[in-house]
Each structure stands twice: as structure tokens, then as C-alpha cells.
Amino acid sequence: MALARHGATANGGVNRQALSAEEIAAWHEVIAWGREATLVPFTDPAGNLFLCAEGADRSAAPVLTGSHLDSQPTGGKFDGVYGVLAGIEALQAIRDAGLTLQRSVEVVAWMNEEGSRFAPGMMGSAAFAGALPLANFLNVRDADGISVRQALAGLHDEFADMPSRPLRRRLAAYVEAHIEQGPILEREGYQVGVVTGIQGKRTFRVSVKGMEAHAGTEPQGERRDALLAAVRMIHALDEAMRECGGDDVKFTVGRLVVTPNAPSVVPSGAVFSIDLRHVDSALLTSLGNRIPSICAAHAGECDVDVVELTTAMSLHFPERMTRLIRDTASALGIPSLDIFSAAGHDARFLHSVCPSGMIFVPCKAGISHNPQESVKPEDLAAGARVLTDVLVALANDSHPGRV
User: Fold this and answer.
1) In terms of DSSP bridges, do strands 173-179 and 213-214 run parallel, antiparallel, or are they unpaired?
2) Are residues 188 and 288 both part of a single domain?
3) Which among 178, 288, 315, 317 has most CB atoms closer than 10 A?
4) Are 189 and 145 found together in one domain?
């Protein structure tokens, strides 16, 4: 509730965009809470925030946990934030219990998970894991023309005294706690979800170029109306995705920018986003590969350019990690359910560099990316208890990948 003050909206939600003044204020608060728990803060070139509980063996690869602090423009109080704060709470509980950790444990807040201000999302975790070079993101600009490079410089200037460590550091394991953002756990009556994997996702940017003209004088048959061409494309794409995959295919056009966006001018430009998801990687590949040809077929007299921003096939977390989370919940007497994540998370990129896993807790009616996002305190606590014991097990195992 305290963190939700940073970027609070009038309807009870949160608008805390990546690398914004609101997120910088959230950093200050989280760092202060971390220091109260004797955690040491540092950052990296990608603008990720880390809070470290140092272990007895400083040479051993650390265990990492966390999520993100940025939100959608119409976000809620718990998405991402829960994973960061649960990590701090876990390390504070471990300290208060007087336990010794052999490996260091770090809480992380990844930069730009949501991708609402700068596209694509998950920039911080992708750069950290080496999935994409940080340089690929630096020239990306937000709606006001501010680049990631400029926003990162502002963040680093604000925390100029904070140590910075390199990207691509060795890790022993990664565990991310998160709200489910779906209705299954609440409907089935479980406090904890053992996440077995993450649904595949491909994102695209489609740019349609036409020509400006006077709305009252340009003949209808001679117009190069970029907006009407974009509408034809979106309709055709929606029909094609439904025809091939039915309700299991998730096709979303969440952003449409029109130029010059004037009532009496034929639009000369339209840029729209595509978010395409499916659990079957082969079908996701096939559907995504059809997008350029469908757009070209409905461009009419306009030009169209389709750029794929991200490609991430479905993944399955290591069985040893899901077993550890499942067994830990059982030992604590907390009911758990194996569940596949329909939403994307930073754990996707960590999965490629170390044994990774996720812990879900239920949210009311599955509502997320919405000011009505709500979670019961007892469910948050249950997930944090599981996370705490999992972190202790990983930090004190000489071979955490074999747990």
C-alpha cells in the first residue's frame, strides 16, 4: 500500500512507468526498506536494482529473487511489486531468525518489465541474461521522444553514489514470486501455484504509410488512407488467428497511433502493436509468420512495414525447481497447484542462464493490469513463506541446480 503512493491514480490504481520519476521515487523507498533489513543496494548498466544479503561464501554464485516495480498505465498495486517486496520480507525473516546463508541472496527489481513506456518489455532481464544486448534498447523512444539511453542516464545520475556491477553475472538459481493474473488458483481454492512454465509470445510493430489529404476535397478513390488500411489489416489478422487457433490463441492490438490525428485530414500514418501468444510453439511460429503477408494483402495503396520486436517460445521450468517449490509448500501445510503461466515474466530470460522457477498466489477474479487488482493478505503471506524456505534451501545447497 505504501509503494502504491508512487504513481497513484485517482481510481485507486497505479501508473508507474519504467525509468520515470515515479519509479525513481519507488526505488528510494525500496532501497530504504532494504537497508532496514541490512541489505546492500547496487545496480547495473541496464538499470536493474539489486539488494543483497551477503552469504558466508562470497565467491559462490548468488541466488536471485524478485520481479519488477514498473506498471501499466492503468495498473494495480501488486503486479511485479509483490515479488520484490516478498523477497525483502523473506530476507528480513531469515535475518531475524538468525539463520546463516552460505550463498548470497539478492532481491532484484528488473527494468521495464511491462514494456508500456518503452517497447519491448523485459529489457532489464533480457540484457542481464544476455538474450539481447543492452545496445539494442538504448535508442528506443517513448511517446514523448525520450530514449531509453536518456532515461537510464537520469536514473544513474539520481543514484550516482550506488555501486554498479556488470551484466551476465553467475547465478546459482532464480525464483520469482508473482500474483497469478488469472482466475485458476482462486477458483480451485489454492493459496500457492507452482508454475511449471510460461506461454510463448511474439510481438510486432506494424507501420502503415499513406498520404495526408484534405478530408473534404480528396476523392475517395484516390486516397491513401493509412488508418483505413490499418483497420483492414487488424480485422483480417483477427479473423485469421481465430480461424487457426480459436480461443486458445491470444491476439491483441493494444496500441494504435495515427498521424496527423486531425479530424479533417486523411491519415498519412498508422502504427499499431501486435501481441500474439499461444502455448504451442509450433502454432505460435506458424501464426506469427503469416502476419507480414496478411498485412501486405490488405495495404491497398499504402506501404506497410512489419517489424518483429520479440520472439519467445513456450518454456518449461526444470522439474527440480518445481519439485522444490511444491515440496516446500507441502511441508508448510500450504495447498499448492501446478499451473502454467499465460502471462510473460522476467523468469523467461533467467531460465536460460540458471535453474529458475516461479511461485504464484491468487488474485481476486484473476483481474490484473487494472486498478481493481486485489490480493488477500493471507495469500501474500503464504507465498512469501514458501519463497523464504525455498531461498534458504537454495542458498545452503552446494549444488542448487541439483535440488
Assistant:
1) unpaired
2) no
3) 178
4) yes
Report pTM.
0.87
Amino acid at 353: V
pLDDT per residue over 276-285, tens digit each?
999 999 999 9
Cα–Cα distances in angstroms (integers) from residue 380 to residues 78, 116, 128, 275, 337, in the given order: 10, 26, 28, 29, 16
Q: What are the distances in angstroms from CA 162 to CA 11, 45, 316?
A: 35, 12, 36
Domain tally, the chain = 2
Span 360-388, pLDDT tens digits:
999 999 999 999 999 999 999 999 999 99
Do 167 and 134 reside in the same domain of the chain?
yes
As a dihedral over the C-alpha atoms of residue 184, residue 248, residue 79, residue 124, rounded to 10 degrees, the angle is 140
- DSSP for 6-68, please give it: TTB-TTS-B---TTSHHHHHHHHHHHHHHHHTTPEEEE-TT--EEEEE--S-TTSPPEEEEEE
DSSP element (H, E) containing 153 = helix 148-158
CATH number of the domain at 294, please.
Answer: 3.30.70.360
pLDDT at 213 over 60: yes
What confidence category does residue 398 fall into, taking pLDDT thresholds of 50, 70 and 90? confident
